[in-house]
Write a structure and sequence with these properties.
By secondary structure, this protein is mostly helical. Helix content is about 85%, strand content about 0%. The N and C termini lie far apart (about 70 Å).
Length: about 180
């Protein structure tokens, strides 16, 4: 059996691990077009969903599915490229930056999607485009903000969102969608 480390040895090992984590966080690189691809596909998904809410036909359902699939594909590719570039996975990056579960990303996405739905139901297509672009931009900016905070304090920001918060976000999103669809009919 190995002897237990001394308190000084344990403290030194923990300090070394913390230093290593901080160096890793500060040296993380992002693949090219990381934020751009996420932002553009979020904007595309918002616009496609708004078209679906306004017209609700077979082709608009396919368009909405294609918008969601484009986001899923871009997210998967960028996460794969991040892992290959850095050799690590970071749950917070996947959850908060790419999947948008951070409060800022979720809120901006919900607001942009709601506004785009309203604009589509009102037939204001120029406003749908503005809302979709604003939603993609805000989503991207919230991801940049999270990464900056992560690099400053990786221990606090490395985790993904809690399951409770994900349930709240999902319930609110479904409630807003149901309300908008009911109001539009």
């Amino acid at each position: 059996m190995r002897a237990l480390p001394t308190p000084e040895g344990a403290a030194a090992a923990l300090a070394g691990a913390e230093t290593s984590r901080a160096q890793l966080a500060g040296g993380l690189g992002l693949p090219s077009f990381f934020y751009g691809s996420i932002g553009v596909t979020v904007a595309t998904q918002i616009a496609a969903a708004a078209v679906e809410v306004a017209f609700d036909t077979g082709w608009t359902r396919l368009l909405a599915i294609a918008g969601a699939a484009a986001f899923a594909l871009a997210a998967g590719i960028q996460l794969f490229r991040f892992r290959r570039l850095n050799g690590v996975r970071i749950a917070g990056l996947t959850s908060r930056v790419v999947l948008g579960t951070g409060r800022a990303a979720a809120t901006s996405y919900a607001l942009a999607l709601s506004a785009a739905f309203w604009a589509a139901l009102a037939g204001l297509w120029w406003l749908v485009a503005v809302c979709a672009c604003a939603g993609g931009l805000a989503y991207t900016l919230s991801g940049r903000r999270w990464l900056r905070h992560y690099r400053g304090d990786p221990a606090t920001h490395a985790r993904a969102e809690s399951a409770g918060w994900l349930v709240v976000i999902s319930a609110l999103a479904l409630a807003v969608l149901a309300l908008l669809v009911l109001v539009g009919r």
